[in-house]
Amino acid sequence: MMPTSPPKPKALPAMWEAHLADHVIALAWSPNGVWLAAAEVSGPISLFATATGQRCWRVDGHGFGTTALAWRPDGAVLCSAGLDGNIRWWDTATGTECLRLAGGATWVEQLTWTPGDRTSGALLASGAGRKLRLWNRDGQPVQAYTDAAGTISAVHWVPGLSPADPGPPLLISAAGSTLTLWLTDRPEPLHTYHAQGAIIALAWRRDRRVIAAGKQDARVQTWTFPAQSDLMMHGYTTKVRELAWEARGHWLATDGSPVVIVWDWRTGTPDGSAPISLDAHLDLVSALAFQHHGPDLASGGIDSRVYLWNMAQGEHPLAYSKLAAPISQVAWSPDDALLAIGADDGMVRVCAIHSEG
């Protein structure tokens, strides 16, 4: 009997498209999913209505370029960071700038609000050069941490180290080959860990036990808490910039190759086991995102394609979307029903998704 060919992936129809003037450096959904914000690498920021794709407003953003977007948890304010050294707060309803904060260095590259429903006690973390700072929901300074050993390359919130008694959120930051854990109420590090090689990306497993780091030397290193044991994963052809955990923590998807390399964490660490290779892209993978709650993984590539995968459905893509330029961003809406795609030529496309599992 001849082996059956895998089913061809279906094309994902676009719900709407918008054309920006430059490379899409960031996409961010509002907490209620009503708005999608998009930033161009040269600075301008646009806000779109999710239902129609109508552009509600466009602002110049940051001189020299915008680097990051982050929504305040109540959705009333969109924050942005840029190469002018500032953190700017934009009123969602009007697009007017309502606050400007100094990040502490020439450029601000990291910007992230505390996860979850923390409307009244929300905190904004910013990383600028060696400066890691905290701000409250009104933009008042809360903490200025001890300077990092080098330029901060990644910042990630951790919802406490113990699932049984999580306590207040913590921050993890990466600078060079150093990984540092911080409390919100003291400027000195809580713990410092040392990697083998410079870290350029971080992703925290939701069960609060594992932090994964993508590295400049084409490897992935993970630390398991509270034992603090570490594991090194190899097999990449270039630096690892994109990391994505599946919602239950079963799978860790990574770039660093023309294939999506996925590590299986269902029965413990993947130590000694070979990863799964999701092979469809014709060039390097450039963007990755698992759904917030569902099973689907979106991967974007330099080949201008986005593929949709489901680990429970096998190792073949279920759907795809073809654009005209390399993919720079993929982002799931809060309810996982929509996928936003950004490209190097300024294209923003939103697709409706029917989950397969």
Major sheet attributes: 5 strands, mixed
Query: Compute the gyration radius: what is it?
Result: 20 Å
Shape: globular
Kindly report how far apart the N and C termini lie.
29 Å
Instruction: Flag low-confidence runs.
Output: none
The overall pLDDT, averaged over residues, is 92
| Proportion of strand residues | over 45%
Which bin fits the share of residues in helices? under 10%
How many beta strands in the DSSP annotation? 33
Number of helices: 0
Broad structural category: mainly beta
Instruction: Kindly report the spatial arrangement of strands forming the biggest sheet.
Output: 1-30-29-28-27
Notes on the structure:
This protein is mainly β. Helix content is 0%, strand content 48%. The protein has no helices and 33 strands. It has strands at 10-11, 14-19, 24-29, 35-40, 45-49, 55-59, 66-71, 77-82, 86-91, 97-102, 110-113, 123-128, 131-136, 141-144, 152-158, 170-175, 178-182, 191-194, 199-204, 210-215, 220-224, 229-233, 243-245, 251-254, 260-264, 276-278, 285-290, 296-301, 305-310, 319-322, 327-332, 338-343, 347-352. The strands form 8 sheets. A 5-stranded mixed beta sheet has the order 1-30-29-28-27, with no helix packed on it. It has a 4-stranded antiparallel beta sheet with strand order 2-33-32-31, with no helix packed on it. A 4-stranded antiparallel beta sheet has the order 3-4-5-6, with no helix packed on it. A hairpin with a 5-residue loop joins β27 (285-290) and β28. The chain is globular, with a radius of gyration of 20 Å. It starts with 9 loop residues before the first strand and ends in a 5-residue tail after the last strand. The mean pLDDT is 92.
